Amino acid sequence: MAVIDTSRALNGRVSLSSAVAARFAALRETVAVWNARRATRKALSGLTAAELDDIGLTVADVENM
Prior knowledge:
Blueprint: H1 16-45, H2 49-54, H3 59-63
């Protein structure tokens, strides 16, 4: 996700609202990545060892994700 900062002060400093928005965007991205990884682990943990082997993974690979 890209963020374009259009709220810089004229003296080059970043405004407080811009800094808060950037932190919020970073937090939102972190949560999105965590959730995607969680969903992947959940889906893969439902597969048998043979099914995991078919896609080149092991049970240990799933546990270490």
